[in-house]
């Protein structure tokens, strides 16, 4: 059974995750696709970033020099997404907890 965290612990945990999110140098949401293309009758490696934007797939060429940097930014994107989800969960718990602990207003 999970132990319920108090309001202070929830806010501390959320603040820690928000700091971690802010400490990310940047991120990219998408996938790096590596394939080959025929160039001068030879197969050569080809890499592109695939992103879905407004229901449409957008691709961006990625040079071999930038491949590692894009890989790092995509990994950071996965981490950012997880952080956003966890921060959201904690925010919901905080709001619900505040409502439970607030005193009813007298009219």
Helix/strand layout:
Blueprint (H helix, E strand, L loop, with lengths): L6 H17 L7 E9 L2 E12 L2 E6 L5 H35 L6
Antiparallel strand pairs: 1-2, 2-3
Helix pairs in contact: 1-2
Keywords:
107 residues, single chain, alpha+beta, 49% helix, 2 helices, 3 strands
Describe it for me?
By secondary structure, the protein is of the alpha+beta class. Helices cover 49% and strands 25% of the residues. It has helices spanning 7-23, 67-101; strands spanning 31-39, 42-53, 56-61. It has a three-stranded antiparallel beta sheet, with helices on one face. The mean pLDDT is 89.
Distance between the termini: 39 Å
- Spatially, the strands of the biggest sheet line up as 1-2-3
How much helix is in the residues? Answer: 40-55%
- Quickly give the structural class: alpha+beta
How do the SSEs run, as a string of H and E?
HEEEH
Q: Report Rg.
A: 22 Å
Compose a concise summary of this entry:
Helix content is 49%, strand content 25%. The protein is an alpha+beta fold.
């Amino acid at each position: 059974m999970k132990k319920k965290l108090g309001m202070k612990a929830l806010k501390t945990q959320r603040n820690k995750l928000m700091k971690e999110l802010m400490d990310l140098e940047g991120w990219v949401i998408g996938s790096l696709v590596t394939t080959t293309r025929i160039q001068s009758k030879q197969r050569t490696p080809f890499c592109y970033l695939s992103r879905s934007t407004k229901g449409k797939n957008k691709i961006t060429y990625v040079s071999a020099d930038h491949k590692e940097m894009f890989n790092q930014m995509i990994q950071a994107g996965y981490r950012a997404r997880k952080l956003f989800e966890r921060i959201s969960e904690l925010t919901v718990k905080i709001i619900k907890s505040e409502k439970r602990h607030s005193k009813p207003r007298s009219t």
